Amino acid sequence: MNLAEISIKRPIFITCVVILMMILGVISYKKMPVDQFPDVTFPIVFAEILYPGASPVDVERQVSKIVEDELSSLPGLETVSSYNYDSVAIIIVKFRLGVDIKESEQQVRNRIQNVRNKLPKDIEEPLIRRFDPADQPIVSIAVNSNLDPASLYDVAYEQVKPMLERVQDVGLVRLVGGQKKEIQVIVDKNKLQDHRLSMNQVSKKIEDTSRDIPIGKFEGQSDETILRAVGEFSELSQIEDVAVNFFGSDRPIKISDIATVREGLEKPKRFSSINGENALFLQVFKQSGANTVAVADRLKQQVGNVNAMLKDRGIDAQVILVRDASVPIRLNVLDVQESIFIGIILCVVVVFFFLGSARSTFITGLALPNSLLGGFIIMYAMGFSINIMTLIALSLAVGLLIDDAIVVRENIFRHLEMGKKPMDAALDGTKEVALAVIATTMVVMAVFGPIAFVPGIVGQFFKQFGLTVVFTMMISLFDAFTVAPMLSAYMATGNEHHRGQGFIDRMLSAFDRFQTWLEDIYESVLKWTIRYRKTVLISAVVIFLGSMFLGKFISKTFLPASDLGEFSVTVEKPAGTSLEGTLRFTRKVESLLKAMPEVSLVTVTVGSNSYESNKADLFIQLVPAKERKGLSTTKIKSIVREKLEPLKSEAIIAVTDVDISGGGQKPLNLYVVGDNLEELATFALALQKRMAQIPGLVDVDTNFRSGNPEYHVVFDRDKSEALGVSTVAAGAELRNRTEGAVPAIYRKDGIDYAISV
C-alpha cells in the first residue's frame, strides 16, 4: 500500500498528520532564533595580552614571540600571526577547517598558561576567545548625566550594568569610556630621595599591609571559631600610617612623611560622548545561539525599567538607546517575508487562472503552507535560524513547492473526465505520474543539495540555504502523494470546470481565450523554429555568448548596499598623538557631521579596543529616509567624504559601513608578504598610491604605521655592578616612577577602588 492509497483509504489519519505537522511547524517557527546570517564557525582564535606601558617592540619580543613559539606546534594549525601595539599584543591563531574549534581554543589557553612564567610579571590575565561574527554588540546604550565622572562611572558599573546583565540571554555587558575613582598615593621624589627609599619599597609595603589573611579555625568542645587577620584598608588615614622603613632604628617613616594620599580618577584610556555631551557607553552582547531580535526587545524594555529605577533613587542620570543592531535584521527579514507572502499570493492567483477552478486551486494551494511549515520543523531540528539565507531559500522554493501538487491534481482531473469515480481517479492519476513527480523533485534537490556541502567559509553560509530548499521539497513531495489525492478523492466533481455567468466565470473564460491565443502563437513560433533550425541554434549561441560578454560590465558584490540609515567614520591621527590631541581633532569631525540636517545622532569614542590613543570611531545615525530629501545612506556617505576631505591632511579618515564583524572592515583586502620590513613598507606605500588612482576605490589605506616616538634608557653596566644595582631593579623602579603601580585595593561601600602609587 503506497502513500496515495493510504491517504485515500485513511483520510482521518492523514488529516491528523498534516494538522499536527502544521501545528509543530508554527511552534518551530516561533522558537527558531532570528539573526541576519547563519551561525558560521570560523576556525580562528584570538589571544589578547595586555602589557601596560610597553612599546610595540617590547611587546613583540617579550610577549608575542614567546607565545607564538609555544603555539606553533598545535595540531591542526594553519597560521599564527600577531599584531603588536602599545601595551597590547593580539595573537591570531588560524586552524584548518574541520577542526573542533572549542577544543582548539582550550589548547591555546593551556599553551599560553604553560609559558606564563616566561612572560613579564606585569602582564594582565590573557583574554582568549574564538572569532564569531555574531559576537558583536546587539545594543549600544549610553548613560548620560551631570554627575561627576567618578559618580557616573559607579552608577553605570554598579547599578545600570547589573540590571542589563540580568536580562534573559544576555551574555556580556562591556563598559566603554568613563573614569573610575582611585586612591592616589602621590610620592614626593625629593622626600623619597632624602630618606633613601625607592618606589618599589613603597609599593611593596602597601601591598604587604593591605590584605586580610585567613588564619584558620579554633575548635572547642561544642563549637568552632574562624580566625582571620584583618589587614584591608577602610580609611585613607590607614594608608598614610603605613610604615615604609625605619629611620635609624626606632623612628618609622610613614607614607604620610613622603607622599600625599587622596581620592582621584584613573588615567583615562578612552573618551566617549553622544551629540557632544560626555557619556558612558554600555555594549551588550547576546549569548551564543540566542534570538537577536528577542534579546533586543527585552533590552529595550529593560532600559525603561533602568530609567525608572534611577528616577526612584533620585539619581540624576538617564539611559539612552544609541544603536539597535536588530533593526537591520528586522528590516531584512520583513523584506524577505513580504516577498514570500507576495509570491504565495501571486502563485495562487496564477494557479487559479490556469486551472480555472477554485476547488483545484485550494487543493494545490495547500501545498504551500504544508511545505513551508513542515520545512520549519526540520530546520528547527537541525538547529537552523531564521536568517537572510534561509528566507531567500524559502522565497525561491515557493514557485517549486506547488509544482508537484499541480501535476498530480491535473492528472487526477484527466481521469475524472474519463468517467472514473473520484477515488479511482485519485488513485490511478497519482500512480500514473508518481515516477515523474519523484524525478522532478529529486532533480531540484540534486541542484540545491550540493550547495550545502560547498567547502570553506562560504560553504557554511550557504549550507542552510541549500538544505532549506531540500527540506521544503521533501515535504512538498509528501503533500503531493497524500493531501492532493485525498482531497481530490473526497472533494472532486466532474463538472468543476463548468463556466457560469458570474463575474469570475466570465473572467476565467476571457483568460481561457487569451491562453488559446497564446497557444496559437506558440504553435506558429514552434513551426518556424523547426523549419529554420540552424538559424535558431546560431541565434541561441550568439545570445549566450553576448550575455556572457555583457556580464562583466555588471557590478558584483556579496551583498548589495543597504539603506539602513547608519554608518561610521574612523579617525587615525599620527602615531604618538595623545588622547586629548585625538579628541580635539575628532571634535572638528563631529561638528561637521552635526551640521548636516540629515544626521540625527553622533556618538564619539576616542581610543581603540587595543588602547591606541591616536584612533577614534564615530557612529552616525541618520533621520528617517522620508526626511532625507531622497538621499540614500550611500549618497550621504559620499557627501561626508567630500566634507571631510580638507581634514585628511591631518589624519587618516575613512567612512565605512557598520559591517558583520562590527569593526568597519574594508570589503577588499590585499595582503603583501615579504621578509624585509623596510622594503615591504616602501612597496606597500607605493602600492597604496597606485591603488588610490583606481576608479571606484575610496579610503585606500595600509595597516603599516611608523612606531611611536620613544626614549631609550641605557645603563652603564660597570657602574650598576659597582653599586650593586641590577638593571632589572633599576628598570622596575623607573617604571614605577613613570607608569605607576597598583599594589592594593581599597574597598568602600562594597566597591573596590585601586590604590595607585
In words, what does this structure look like?
By secondary structure, the chain is α+β, with helices and mostly antiparallel strands. The protein has 6 domains: 3-33 and 329-491, Multidrug efflux transporter AcrB transmembrane domain (Multidrug efflux transporter AcrB transmembrane fold, Up-down Bundle); 44-130, Multidrug efflux transporter AcrB pore domain (Alpha-Beta Plaits); 139-180 and 268-324, Multidrug efflux transporter AcrB pore domain like (Alpha-Beta Plaits); 190-263 and 714-756, Multidrug efflux transporter AcrB TolC docking domain, DN and DC subdomains (2-Layer Sandwich), CATH 3.30.2090; 499-550, no CATH class; 566-662, 2-Layer Sandwich (Alpha-Beta Plaits), CATH 3.30.70. It is built from 24 helices and 21 strands. Helix 12 (358-365) runs antiparallel to helix 15. It starts with a helix and ends with a strand. The model has no long low-confidence stretch (mean pLDDT 83). One of its GO terms (cellular component) is plasma membrane. InterPro entries: AcrB_DN_DC_subdom, Acrflvin-R. The chain crosses the membrane at residues 12-29, 339-355, 388-412, 433-453, 465-490, 536-554. This is NolG efflux transporter.
Give the structure's gist in a few sentences.
By secondary structure, this protein is α+β, with helices and mostly antiparallel strands. The strands form 5 sheets. Strands 5, 6, 13, 14, 15, 16, 17, 18 and 19 form a 9-stranded antiparallel sheet that branches. A 4-stranded antiparallel sheet has the order 2-3-1-4. A 4-stranded mixed sheet has the order 12-7-21-20. A hairpin with a 2-residue loop joins strand 20 (744-748) and strand 21 (751-756).
